[in-house]
Amino acid sequence: MDLVKNKVSDYKLEHFNKMLENFLERLPSIVSSEAFIAEMKRFLPTDVFDRTLAQDKFQVYLQNTLAKLFKTVSNELLGKVTNSEFRM
């Protein structure tokens, strides 16, 4: 979390939490967009792509996992207590 806090400070992001909320609203459309899928297809081995991003269920999993991660970041920045499984 210190790294995130430092980057927010370095870039003087006054409304980072609002930006994060906006991103979370757009996340499902980003993950399922043709542009994102095409870009990931370029970098992932075919077998990995086929069993992950090519599957609708994996796209839902990815959306949920990323949303949880970014909500944890938001809560930490707002000083809300979260119980992380591991201290990073």
UniProtKB/TrEMBL annotation:
Query: What is the native source organism of this protein?
Result: Proteus mirabilis
Q: What is this protein called?
A: Uncharacterized protein
